[in-house]
Amino acid sequence: MIKTETAKPEDRSQVVNLLMENGMDYSDPIEDFTIARANHSIAGCIRIEPHATVKIIRPLVVASAYRKTGVGRLLLETAIPNANGRPVVIVSRGESRGFYKAVGFSEADWKLIPDHQREECNLCPERPSCNPVPMIYA
Question: Which residues form the N-acetyltransferase domain (predicted)?
Fold first, then answer.
């Protein structure tokens, strides 16, 4: 059975490894992450950053062994209610757009994405293959 919980300091190495395996960066504090735990493994993680007008998901990652099993949806269902009424945005990799649409996101204008995230995407050398798409859950 998979359950979600707030990440603890002892989860840091597994979260960092999961993020690195998926080309994502880690930033402290670990307690900002919600994890999906399957026995002693971390099946996925999500972190939502607050900004002035939105909250942005940075990142949502599911371990390859748990993809298409509902872990991503479970993490979103756990994290989105904590947005306190603010719209939740994400910059989706192009191949993930269908998943986000299926769970209630729609494509959005880049203006909704906080400046630092927009700049990070613009400077990323993987942008052409990543095909980033701003999305909103409102």
Answer: 1-124
